[in-house]
# Entry
Amino acid sequence: PLAAIDIDVVRNGYGRQIFSFEDEVSADLAGERIALRVSFIRAPMVTRSGEDVEILAMYKDSPVLVRSGNVLAAAFHEELEDEAVLLQYFMTDFLRSSTDSESVLTR
# Structure
C-alpha cells in the first residue's frame, strides 16, 4: 500500500469488469455541486475513510471521490466522458493557486 490517503477499499467492490456500468454522481467541487457522468469499471469500493479525508462524492452510500491534502482519489473513470470538469478541478485546486473568486468549473 502507498498510504497516500487514509482510506480502506475493497478491490472490485462494484463487481468484475463484466458488471461495469455508467451512472451520474453529484460532487462537491470548489464549493459547487456538479453532476459528473462516470464509469465504474472494476471499481474499488471505499469502506472506511479517515478523519482528514474529505468526501467529495457518494454513490449509493459509499464514497467514490475523496480528497486529503494534495491527494485526490476516485473509484470511477470520469475521463471516459467528453467533459473535463474533474480535471479542471484538479488543475485549479491542486496545481495552481488562484485568488480569483470566479468558478473555474465550466462545461
